[in-house]
Amino acid sequence: MENTIYEKLGEENLEKMVNKFYELVLQNEVIAPLFTTDMKVVKEKQIAFLTQFLGGPAKYNKTYGHPRMRMRHMPHKITEAAAIEWLKCMNAAIRTLDIEEDFKVTLANCFPRAAAHMVNSK
């Protein structure tokens, strides 16, 4: 049986990716204004969610309940442009990881549909 994306990525690389991602997000003029809460909490939630999203343990469900990501993001004005910038930051964070190039592509391909699903404003 093949490992999940989470197992192949590993907890350490996931944390590195999330930390780099938010470093880039906070420098991004389009999406930085969406992140006005405690970034430590944001990162913890993102790690818990991505652990589960990528095939690992259900950390997010255990702590916060069902993800309901679109509903949880509704208070924030998320445009298509914001989703594209989010993906750019995630892809850049993935590219910094010391993992195989083909796995970087596999990992990056996990996010476009989720990002598009968050769009709730023009």
Structure description:
- The chain has 122 residues and is mainly α.
- The chain has a single domain, classed as Orthogonal Bundle (Globin-like).
- It is 63% helix and 0% strand.
- It has eight helices and no strands.
- The chain has helices spanning 5-9, 11-25, 39-53, 59-64, 69-73, 80-95, 101-108, 112-118.
- α2 packs across α3 (39-53), α2 packs across α6 (80-95) and α6 (80-95) runs antiparallel to α8.
- The radius of gyration is 14 Å and the shape is globular.
- The model has no long low-confidence stretch (mean pLDDT 92).
> Under the CATH scheme, which architecture would be assigned?
Orthogonal Bundle
Query: Which value, in Å, is the CA radius of gyration?
Result: 14 Å
CATH homologous superfamily identity: Globins
Instruction: Decide which structural class fits the backbone.
Output: mainly alpha
Give a quick precis of the structure.
The chain has 122 residues and is mainly α. The chain has helices at residues 5-9, 11-25, 39-53, 59-64, 69-73, 80-95, 101-108, 112-118.
Features:
Globin-like; 63% helix; mainly alpha; 122 residues; 8 helices; 0% strand
Topology overview:
Blueprint: H1 5-9, H2 11-25, H3 39-53, H4 59-64, H5 69-73, H6 80-95, H7 101-108, H8 112-118
